[in-house]
Amino acid sequence: MEEAKKFIIRKAEVSDGPAILELLTKNLYKNLSPEDRGGGFVIFEPTAQELEKIINDVGIILSFSGNELEGYLMVMSKKLALTFAFEKELLTYAEQLKYQGKFISEYNYILLAQICIAKEARGKGTLKQLHQAMRIMLKDKGYEIGIGEIADTNSKSLGVHGFMIEVGTYTDSSRIKWHVVIADPKI
Questions:
Q1: How far apart are CA 128 and CA 20, in angstroms?
Q2: What contacts 169, CB < 8 A, 6 or more positions away?
Q3: Are 135 and 185 in contact (CB under 8 A)?
Q4: Average pLDDT value for the chain
Q5: Closest CA to 114 of 60, 167, 160
Q6: 75, 134 contact by CB (below 8 A)
Q7: What is the mean pLDDT of residues 160-172?
Q8: Half-sphere exposure of 21 toward its Cβ, with a 13 Å CA cutoff?
Q9: Taking the CB of residue 179, how many other CB atoms lie within 10 A of it?
Q10: How far apart are CA 36 and CA 18, in angstroms?
Q11: How far is it, in rounded angstroms, from Cα 177 to Cα 168?
């Protein structure tokens, strides 16, 4: 009889960088066949040095089953996010949007930069566990909301993130249409 694996959620350490980059690379849009993209994908591709900055900033929440990395949720402060052209474009647009009667720029927020779930872990609660941990982080660190974006062509991610609040869409400089979403720890 196979022993049940232990499910662990924790904040990433710099030593987790290679495992995060390996999972990220396996799920990069440019590395996936058109058929595999239907299961979800990521686009943002930080270098090892950039990943270390993200880990040392607000951080990355990891999900393990046993010793296997099943997924991660990468979050960043506004200050760090503005150093990445990919994220700066989102923030420039998103801060002009309103949520519950206030401009996004008026909130103390974090950027939900990327979530990635290993193919074999999808549909097993990993996404939910990572988002629950992120909501606790928002509350504990005094952030009011988390903002993120989901590519219009990533129908899998749009579907599984239906619990988030969409506040607008925009098309970036590379002609990708994005849905701007909010995570609110009060909801």
A1: 19
A2: 152, 177, 178, 179, 180
A3: yes
A4: 92
A5: 60
A6: yes
A7: 93
A8: 16
A9: 19
A10: 23
A11: 11
Per the listing, tokens 């869409």 go with 169
Amino acid found at 159: G
Q: Helix, strand, coil: what percent of the chain each, to 5?
A: 35, 30, 30
Q: SS in 3 state form for 80-128? A: HHCCCHHHHHHHHHHCCCEECCEEHHHCCEEEEEEEEECHHHCCCCHHH
Calculate the alpha carbon distances from 3 to 6, 64, 65 in Å.
Answer: 9, 15, 12
Count CA atoms within 13 Å of residue 45 on its CB side.
10
Name the band, by pLDDT with cuts 50, 70 and 90, for residue 38. confident
Longest distance between any two alpha carbons in the chain, whole Å: 56
Paired residues of 28 in beta bridges:
42
Task: Give me 37's structure tokens.
Answer: 């993209």
Helix (H, G, I), strand (E, B) or coil at 1: coil
CA separation for the pair 63, 20 (Å, rounded): 11
The whole-angstrom separation of Cα 175 and Cα 116 is 22
Digit-coded pLDDT (tens) for 48-99: 999 999 999 999 999 998 889 999 999 999 999 999 998 999 999 999 999 9
Enter the tokens of residue 111: 């950027």
